[in-house]
Design a protein that fits this description.
The protein has five helices and two strands, in the order αααβααβ. By secondary structure, the chain is mainly alpha-helical.
Amino acid sequence: MLENIALIREVQESLSTSKAQELALQYLKRVRLEKIALLRVSSCSKIEIFYTLLIRALMTKKATIIIVTPFTLMPNLRAINVIIEDIQLLTQDKKIIILDNTTNQTHYKGCSCNITK
């Protein structure tokens, strides 16, 4: 997963492979997932794949990241609070928008995010 994440900075900013992988590993460590660094997608859980996709998005130059129906990607996730807390650990300078169905509204109970219908 480390190579998968690092590739973004290697391509977009011509960062060396070693520096890009070092940066990717720092992101994984922030969310306690350094153990997946050397794994392939087929060896990862759905939440580990979600975090890989999230970190890849955070490594782009885009100012806004849109997450669409996260509970479809992670059906065993009970509440979004852990994800929100981890996003705050990963970035302070990106705008994160989560789009979801109203059927998942209970998963957002007690969440610090703004909910718009």
